[in-house]
Amino acid sequence: MMLSRNILVQVLWAYLLCGWTFGSELTFELPDNAKQCFYEDITIGTKCTLEFQVVTGGHYDVDCRLEDADGTVLYKEMKKQYDSFTFTAAKNGTYKFCFSNEFSTFTHKTVYFDFQVGEDPPLFPNENRVTALTQMESACVSIHEALKSVIDYQTHFRLREAQGRSRAEDLNTRVAFWSIGEALILLVVSISQVVLLRSFFSDRKTTTTRVGS
């Protein structure tokens, strides 16, 4: 019983370490004609992954640029809706990645990014990795991997749901404006037809009066 409890404590501790020390995940608004940069201290040899997606706004695209500590460009893409880039740090220092919406004149964007730094810590850091895992430890490792997959899928589907809702609201707004425009055009055409018909009868009446006199 004590062994099972210790294993569960280690699993929870591993998740806390993942949440505290590895990676940054953020959703933010990027105004039009604006640029937003983020910074991360990375040690040499660390494997990192940058993943981003535009959730709402315009054509759902943004410029992305990643630089190392010396300002060397590691990744640069223009007007991307989503992408993922993995690299290994070649030097120590502060790495910078920026999202730019400077090409847009009036549309702001909502951008999501996930910047993972390093590998996940071992689930059982105090265990001797030479020996085989027990059945309980193997089950915990499987659950750990399955939960990570569930979290990734949930994040992916939340982003898709938010993007779909934004598209639906944008389409609904366009349909509403189009309907109002059609109604106004129909009203103007109807009034124009009535005025035109009345002008025909008024001209005939005036002409008849002149001939009779």
Compute the number of helices: 2
Order of strands side by side in the largest beta sheet? 1-8-3-6
Quaternary structure classification: single chain
Distance between the termini: 120 Å
Please render the helix and strand layout as text.
Blueprint: H1 2-21, E1 24-30, E2 35-42, E3 47-56, E4 62-67, E5 73-80, E6 82-88, E7 93-100, E8 109-117, H2 135-212
Antiparallel strand pairs: 1-8, 2-7, 3-6, 3-8, 4-5, 4-7
Helix pairs in contact: 1-2
Which features does this protein show?
four-stranded antiparallel beta sheet
In short:
The chain is α+β, with helices and mostly antiparallel strands. The chain has two helices and eight strands; from the N terminus they run αββββββββα.
Question: How does this structure look, described?
Answer:
Residues 35-117 form the GOLD domain. This protein is α+β, with helices and mostly antiparallel strands and 213 residues long. It is 46% helix and 30% strand. The protein has two helices and eight strands; from the N terminus they run αββββββββα. The protein has helices at residues 2-21, 135-212; strands spanning 24-30, 35-42, 47-56, 62-67, 73-80, 82-88, 93-100, 109-117. α1 (2-21) crosses α2 (135-212). The model is unreliable at 1-21 (pLDDT under 50).
